[in-house]
Design a protein that fits this description.
It is built from four helices and 13 strands. It is of the alpha/beta class. A ten-stranded mixed sheet has the order 4-3-2-1-5-8-10-11-12-13, with helices on both faces. The chain is globular. It starts with a helix and ends with a strand. The mean pLDDT is 92.
């Protein structure tokens, strides 16, 4: 069975470590805030000017002034701090964010990322993804493996406008997990969702990849 959105977020959370500063993008990545292992001390960063993002609030406890990148209500922590968006992007551009976990429309086998627009469709703005992929130390993408039409989203080359070239380090989909080297060589399959075979995965993937599943 493919992994659920929550299971994909849990897999992404396994990449986090004590002391990390982490930015969570729109969509599935926002779920990572509720999947941080107990006892782990890290800081979630929001490019809208918040450092120290807590989990989603319980029903009736939401503060409409506290939102994440996806405009969802969140909670603050005892050590939460607030600042301008300019200061927030200064943290990103200065290399102070360890990991960014983003959604995507397409990822190419060499690590190219397209996640900010579809030509002809209205967008509210490009957001902070271009700064994030250029300024953070590790980029993790979490996305559905295929579009609703069945078309592959993990491709030989992206045909949507790029957010960044050769920027994705780890790709987590509902079917598998891939490592992508910065050299632009083939991606490496390191995990499969339960019940998914390599042959089935290849049939639903346009990108080339080597198999290096870890026991």
């Amino acid at each position: 069975m493919p992994w659920s959105r929550e299971q994909m977020a849990q897999r992404a959370a396994r990449e986090l470590r004590d002391g990390f500063y982490v930015n969570l993008g729109v969509g599935i990545p926002t779920l990572v805030a509720n999947c941080i292992p107990p006892g782990m001390k890290l800081t979630l960063h929001g490019e809208n000017g918040m450092l120290g993002i807590g989990p989603f609030p319980y029903a009736g406890e939401a503060d409409p002034d506290l939102i994440n990148a996806g405009k969802q209500t969140i909670t603050e922590l005892p050590l939460t701090s607030y600042f301008s968006s300019a200061d927030s992007f200064g943290m990103i551009r200065g290399g102070h964010i360890d990991v960014s976990i983003l959604g995507a429309m397409q990822v190419a086998q060499n690590g190219d990322l397209a996640n900010w627009m579809v030509p002809g469709k209205m967008i509210k703005g490009m957001g902070g993804a271009m700064d994030l992929v250029a300024g953070v130390q590790k980029v993790i993408v979490v996305m559905e493996h295929c579009e609703k039409s069945g078309a592959a989203k993990f491709k030989h080359a992206c045909d949507l406008p790029l957010t960044g070239r050769d920027v994705v380090d780890l790709l987590i989909t509902d079917l598998a997990v891939f490592e992508i080297e910065s050299t632009g060589s083939s991606a490496r399959l390191i995990e499969l969702a339960p019940g998914i075979t390599v042959d089935e995965l290849r049939a639903r993937t346009e990108a080339s990849f080597d198999v290096a599943i870890r026991s």
